[in-house]
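Example 3.
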Amino acid sequence: MFWSQPESGTRDGDPDADFRQRAAAKAVRYGLSPFLVLVAVLAWCGNLVTLSLGDPDSAWWRSLLVVWCLLILPGLAVAWHHRRQMRLPAGGADLDVLTRTAERTDLSQNSSEIIRTLREEIGRTMARQPGVVFAATLAGPGFHTGHRDNAAARTQQGSFWCAGARAPVWLGLSPASKKLFDAVRLEGERVVHEGDGAELAGFQIPADVIRGCHSWLMISAGSADQAPLLVLLGLRKGADREALQTRLQRLRTILGPLLSIHHHLTLTRSQISAARAENEALVRYNKMQGEFVAVASHELKTPLTSIGAYTEVLLQNIANPDFTPREEFLTIIKNESDRLLRMVNRILDFARIEFSEQLLQKELVALRPLITDTVTTLEPQLTAKRQKLDVECPDTLPQVEVDRDLIRQVLINLIGNAIKYSPQRGKITVRACEDAATVRIDVQDTGPGIPADELRSIFRQFYRVHRTSDSEEGAGLGLTIVKNIIDMHNGHVDVKSREDKGAIFSCHLPKEYVFNPARACLLGDLMAVKQFQQILRLSVRMVAELTESRVVVFSLLDEREENLLIQAALGLPARQVETARVSKDTSYLGRVIRSASPDLASAAEAQGLIAASQLTTDADALAAAPLVIGHRTIGAVIVADKMNATPYDKDDLNLLATLCERISAALGAALNHRTDSQRLEEIVEAMQALVKMKHSSIPTVNPLALRLMNSTAGVLGFSPAEIKRLQYLVALHDAGMVRVDEDILHKAGVLNEDERDEVDSHVVKGADLMAPLLLNSEMKEIILTHHERMDGKGYPDGKTGVEIPLGSRILAVLDAFFAMIQERPYRDRIPPAEVVKEMRRQAGKQFDPMVVKCFLDVLQEEGIITAQADTADAGQGPDREPRHDEEQTWQHLES
Amino acid sequence: MATPRILIVEDEAPLSSLLSQTLENEGFEVAVAHEGIDCMNKVASFGPDVIIMDIMMPKLDGVDTTRLIRRNRNYHNTIIVALSAKADAATRERMREAGANLFMRKPFVIRKLVDRIKQMLGIETTR
């Protein structure tokens, strides 16, 4: 802090004391004043002396008294002047602030800090002027509205002082008030003589404060394109506006150069950090390349070593007639040189793919012919090992938009691996099928499988699973290439394997997604903004994957709010997306829009929207939920064709509604910051994180979790609106996990301290990442505290008991429950009785006992645990076999 | 003196089979291990005088295996010859610290390897 120096140390306790001190110090500097004051004091003393010693009857004595009094008067006048100054500091005080700040600060390091201090100080001073109702100051290049609770934004965005409230208050800017401020930045200053304060509505200044003002004065320092400082004063009737204006203008002349320097420093600093980041990226890339070359050369030397060694022996025995294994040796040499060639090819492939990301040539490809073609080219290898290969690919499989050659390469690598690792006469299956948002290609082998602890490493460069003694050849690049190619297509690869049970490699390629930007919808030209399109795409994908629906339709109302237009869709033909138009008044969707609540519909009601052939069930074949921004319904999201061909139920509807709230939050936030590309990117990033959670096998929101949250929070007395908010947070609160190193996340075994810290950091990371999607500050607080414990041993702040929001305490229990019933890399699933026991044990330590009790009651009501499991105690040890039905419920939960 | 025993630790099958044949022809008793853990078992059961150790191996690599072997007092005098394609200074140093007696770069000349082993065993026997 700048001002907590010795001479102003009293400021914290009494801000006025420091102020008087400065006024007094200034009085001393006014040359004549101390002299006059001294005279007055001496005259007063003389007066007293004369009064006590003199003779009251003599005329001389009386005239002396008059002289003393006359001498006192100028001194009194000076004192009166200073008294006024104490209330009303002259421009000198502002100059003082500047000089002292400049003296104490290393400008190059702290220009933002100086600006901040200046801003605070100017606001504080101006608010004290007579006739001023409030003073507000803002500094910085951009003024975005942010979350009220965003501490960083608060210090950057501005401060507000009012006669009654000296503490800084956050100032928000609406688009309208931002326009006003932009105008002031250009004009330099503006006076609003009289008015109802409508211009200031967006600043979030309390209404009663606005009512107390008669006119407003706004002035900006620093040029418009640089980081300016803006001062806004609210004035009472009869305030000396011109004097204040002059003072502010004077301030502006002083501050101008400083702000300009600050602007350039900030610019330079950001350039430096950008250059540094770029440099780091290059260094990292360089290092990666270096490692690649080192490992590649080692891999190439391996077959060379064998070739060299065998040739040497052959040469030594060239004249030895007894040396028999000549042919065998030559075969080995031939094999090894073949292997070397293959490896060189692989490395070339890898380099080609690594560096040709821009050259992706996408086209609509039917997978079936591609797969059969590829299998034909691999036929010789298959017959050599007498293996059998089955291709399973339904005729209804939709086409995918991919680079044909690259996907062929993927298939060659995966099927090649399957052939290599499967035994003689083994069976290989290539299966293509349609998932919710993706088309999946599985390649299943009957080989030795991959040990659990190696599953995560196999996609790395040059990684080879521990080989059996008959030594499989390969460069360890095949899977890296597969992963790169699929990543380039925005898909993902995963692998499932059990040792001795073979492995299944699955490539998930995104289905064709139809986006229709040409329609005049409620959001109008916003649909042309890149980030909006990304939000839409991610929204559709998230809904498809989490509700497990093959068809997702994202519709928005048109400008007149009469018809619904399909804006984007998954699983619908492009032509339909372009032409479909559903009246709001008649259709099923109209019902959803009008009531602004989610609803189910039968196949008959889907007419005009989704072809009947695409619907697998009759009743409850569709589910739809409205998109609501603020209190305005702007459209709806419809899902159809559920994966397992069952009707949608209440749980699905609940899930869809929660997802739509996420999407609405993202769209709403994007709408508010439509011109701020950085904020838009943040929103896109938040949505990406939510989609990525599913692919990184981080627990995502599921109907059961929502139901349990609903019941538990209900029992604990939350209102329906609050429960909705809590449901919104289910799974959203763990989104920070996508920022945690995947290797650590899936590590088998106990984590060390650093790794632990990395995992723990997901709490703060999640709160930051999800900030654009949070509706209020309590939500952020809940995310930040969901790993706190009742006994204060949690993280990140070690809060205890009621310091932790109740919602957070419920989430903690819910999280722990789902964590325990799932298998983790380092342990098996925990049997139900153990879960209950563990929760009981942790009540009062990790968990809130009240929440645990309610939660266990809810579990029992739901039939997830039996009364017996609920009362399980020491009598039933950990090795107790779980009852059959319990086991079944558990498996059901897992899926 | 009994026939000297040599343990070959090498994950490349063609190379290990050639080495074992050559060394058997030279009159040694030979065993082969395919990686570090396998090697630890064979060291205990086979009791080699010389271990030819590859460095880059899956699971337990040559450096760690050597370190583990040297930790056991019974194998302080066992000769360990490191063989590796990765032959930069750092790797050599790590291998030397772990307790290897000799480092040979791959690709290598078999004759030379056999000569060095004989030479070292000769020194060993005369002491």
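The CA atoms of residues 745 and 759 of chain A lie 7 Å apart. Chain A touches chain B through 25 residues (CB under 8 Å).
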